[in-house]
Design a protein that fits this description.
The protein is an all-alpha fold. The chain is about 25% helix and about 0% strand. The chain starts with about 55 loop residues before the first helix and ends in a 25-residue tail after the last helix.
């Protein structure tokens, strides 16, 4: 409920309406939890006023236990769990949440159209399911990710404290940014690292260099891009194509490069898109990836070192003059 409910001191919030039929009155009963005084809340061990900053709290767990396997050009199951920055998030967050299609998988599982649990379950406040969740079928209980925290997963011996961080991240509805402040103004989500600092347009590296290259060499397999500014010219699955921390490791560069040359080894139409790292097309894409990274660091976002909030006084909802 952390994304939907805000209470001020002295206010009381009940559970009626979400965890039972909102069209009927609650049945009078003395619930077990109501038989004792409220338990005082304790700050979590990571401090930060209780704010769960993904990069400072969750990412270190992956760094300690997972990155040694889940990194590089061809990580197991395609799960790159590094903290390298991507368009809106980082590699691990995009892998666990977006690339796993967890939202779509959960909808199918919840409605009975599939028996597969999502890797990470969460609830989208605006477009999510409207039916009450059944007990122990949401959050960390409704996710497969906790299964991979056990020693049975390649002998990973994760301490209970680190497991708890992951459980609490999922149960807090998978937050990423530590603040509502942002550095980019007017971009998609106001946090588009590919975009200009003060408007919805994307950077020249994308519009003048990458987009023409993509349309000429990639669109026949990956499909045409929506170039309307309102949609910021890109769709979700490609948010992670450029590694803004280590641009030379960008999936856009490694996916269609042979394994012999350090790539993933995916073939397109029976051949590799890049003959080698000396291929002029590969070198051009490498230069684009490096420019993308340089431009992203000119205006660091809230998940990056050097972030300077520029959202003050620019709230989306303003009172009438």
């Amino acid at each position: 409920m952390t994304s939907a409910i805000n209470l001020m001191p002295g206010e009381t919030q009940s559970c009626t309406g979400c965890h039972e039929n909102r069209r009927t009155a609650a049945v009078p009963m003395s619930a077990l939890a109501a038989r004792k005084a409220p338990s005082p809340l304790e700050r979590p061990p990571w401090g930060n006023a209780g704010v769960l900053d993904y990069n400072k709290v969750v990412q270190p767990v992956w760094d300690r236990h997972c990155v040694r396997c889940h990194s590089g050009a061809n990580p197991p199951k395609g799960m790159n769990l590094t903290g390298h920055y991507t368009r809106f998030f980082n590699m691990s967050y995009d892998s666990l949440v977006n690339r796993s299609k967890s939202d779509r998988v959960f909808r199918a599982w919840f409605t009975g159209d599939s028996t597969n649990k999502p890797l990470v379950q969460s609830f989208h406040l605006l477009t999510g399911l409207t039916e009450p969740f059944r007990a122990k079928e949401s959050g960390s209980f409704g996710s497969r990710l906790p299964e991979y925290l056990e020693k049975s997963h390649h002998g990973v011996d994760m301490p209970a404290a680190d497991k708890r961080i992951v459980y609490e991240w999922i149960d807090a509805m998978i937050p990423y940014y530590p603040t509502f402040d942002y550095a980019h103004i007017g971009g998609k989500g106001d946090r588009d690292k590919w975009g200009e600092a003060d408007g919805p347009a994307l950077k020249p590296w994308f519009q003048k260099r990458f987009l023409p290259l993509y349309q000429k060499n990639c669109a026949s397999c990956h499909g045409q891009m929506d170039t309307r500014v309102a949609n910021t010219n890109f769709v979700e699955p490609q948010w992670w194509w450029f590694d803004l921390t280590e641009p030379d490791s960008s999936p856009a560069l490694l996916a269609h490069l042979s394994k012999q040359d350090g790539g993933l080894g995916c073939m397109a139409k029976g051949k590799f898109a890049f003959a080698s790292r000396q291929d002029p097309l590969w070198k051009e894409l490498l230069d684009i990836a490096r420019e993308a990274a340089r431009e992203a660091w000119r205006t660091p976002e809230a998940d990056m070192p050097g972030f300077v909030p520029r959202s003050r006084g620019r709230c989306e909802y303003r009172s009438a003059p």
